[in-house]
Amino acid sequence: MSQISEFGTILLFIIGAIAFFLIAMFSARLLRPDRPNSEKLSTYESGEEPIGDAWGRFNVQFYIVALVFILFDVEIVFLFPWAVVFGDANLNSATQGLWSWFTLIEMFIFVAILSLGLAYAWVKGYLDWVKPKPEPIDFESKVPASLYEQINEKYAVRKDVNKTV
Known about the structure:
Elements: H1 6-31, H2 38-41, H3 60-86, H4 89-94, H5 98-123, H6 145-154
Helix pairs in contact: 3-5
């Protein structure tokens, strides 16, 4: 019989993981070159030089959509235990099926409350995305329109040639 309990085995795994991490970090520190310069110490954002303050303003709509997503994502977390209890044969047989009806009604009430929350967000306009107004482009091409038409006719796909049987 083993002298280590199951919790002791888990503790040994945790200690081993921490030791592995510390050894890897220490050996990487010994082996890597350390030559800092202004290029390496600058902020890197998608290959662009940072301009302005990092605390720029964002559209609040991003946060509202994220919160609505989290609200309905959490719904799944609450519905999973409901499904487990709903399908428990022992509880259903012990209550002659009343437990199934109770949990089913409870689930519908929960989904109805979430639907009311969605309807509220929809009516208040929290789900409407602000669309930019299209601005007309004042561009005049130096290429005549007849040349574009010639190119389109030349490379147009003919329906009778490309039919597949």
